[in-house]
Amino acid sequence: MSTQSNNDPNRLITLAIHTYDHAVILKSRLEQAGITSVLHNVNLSEPVVSAGVRVRIREKDLPKALAVVESEQFIPVSTTPKKGMKVLIPVDFSDYSIKSCLVGFEYAQRYNGSVVLLHAYMNAERKFALPFSSDKYDRVGIADSTLRSKALLAMKDFRSKLEKMIVDQQLANVSFETAVREGVAEQCVLNCAEEVKAQLIVMGTAGTSQKERAALGSVTAEVLDACKFPIMAIPKNTEADRLAQIKNVVFFSNLIPNDLLSFDMFSHLLSVKGLKVSIVPVVEKRNNATYTQEAKQQLMNYCTEHYPQCEFQMTEVALEGNLDEFQKFTNEKNIDLIVIPNKKTNIFARLFNPSIAHKVLFCSDTPLLVVPV
């Protein structure tokens, strides 16, 4: 860490955080403009991973450096959804699935992309089949064939329903394909996401509804914990056009540089112009007050400098117990979206103790976006 005075124009400050490849490109562009820069790996937990490289410059060069960053010569592809993005939507043919499709198809259209609909079914008998029982295998084979036929038929009917919605202009007109697989639902979602290189997964949740909470919520929660792709969880009672008109967002932060990567990804995924963002710090108990205050200020400075089109405020919210205060906060502030960075150390475990780690999925009807870093 630099020991230079805050008033020293030569002190090093962070200009941006990118993957290693794009940090090197930015460093090259800066040097072409006569700006000295250095790279610093902020991904201390996994230093061999290329994501999370800080590009640092002298403070006096900031205006000139920002001109380079904002020019068309350098666009950080690493955090920008590409044209032709793939949106994966797991479906069970319920109302939850329709709501997920309304959102997922909209985002696919926004980036000239396409959608993959996935349905997973599980043959309960297969789990109890004994390897030495041929008769049992025969019965399982018949059951499996029947289940798959039913699943394929249900997917065909669901596809027809969506096609009619597109014709009636009730659903964004994008190309989509379907997939039906046998297996544990969450594992099927994770495998399919890897295969199609999904840039967004849209899943339904029960929200405050008690019905089907256990089954649907557990699948979504498992995928949230393990997935490497951005996931948007849509509660059943969310208004269809709510996510098209996002104004108020809660962004949880551990006050570490990696969180900036997730905010960059979020800002490119959604239109952030005019957003009011409430940053809720999630601070480790061992952090001292001085460090925490400095980290908050650095985060606010970064956000206000790099996203002048947004309005930021640091907000303290109690995250213990049954989340009553958090629910009250989201209602009072008319929060449209909750954004949570997620890494292997799992911010959920820091937000809430393990016994209530996934209550955020059920405590309100506010959509949730989990962004991996």
Labels describing this entry:
single chain; 373 residues; alpha/beta; 10-stranded mixed sheet; 3-stranded antiparallel sheet; 10 helices; 38% helix; disordered N terminus
Detailed description of the structure:
The protein has helices at 20-32, 62-70, 95-110, 134-167, 185-196, 213-226, 258-269, 289-306, 324-332, 347-351, and strands at residues 12-18, 37-41, 53-58, 86-90, 114-121, 176-182, 200-205, 231-235, 248-253, 276-281, 311-314, 337-342, 368-372. With 373 residues, the chain is of the alpha/beta class. Strands 6-5-4-7-8-13-12-9-10-11 form a ten-stranded mixed beta sheet, sandwiched between helices. A three-stranded antiparallel beta sheet has the order 1-3-2. Helix 7 (258-269) links the parallel strand 9 (248-253) and strand 10. Helix 5 (185-196) runs parallel beside helix 6. The longest helix has 34 residues, at 134-167. The protein starts with 11 loop residues before the first strand and ends with a strand.
First CA to last CA: what distance? 23 Å
Question: How much of the sequence is in beta strands?
Answer: 15-25%
List low-confidence stretches: 1-6, 43-51, 75-81, 127-140, 207-216, 352-357
Assign the structural class, choosing from mainly alpha, mainly beta, alpha/beta, alpha+beta, or little secondary structure. alpha/beta
Major sheet, described briefly? 10 strands, mixed
Question: Overall 3D geometry?
Answer: globular
Order of helices and strands: EHEEHEHEHEHEHEEHEHEHEHE
* Order of the strands making up the biggest sheet: 6-5-4-7-8-13-12-9-10-11
Q: How much helix, percentage-wise, in residues?
A: 25-40%
In angstroms, what is the radius of gyration? Answer: 23 Å
Please, how many helices? 10
- Nearest-integer average pLDDT: 75
The total beta strand count reads 13
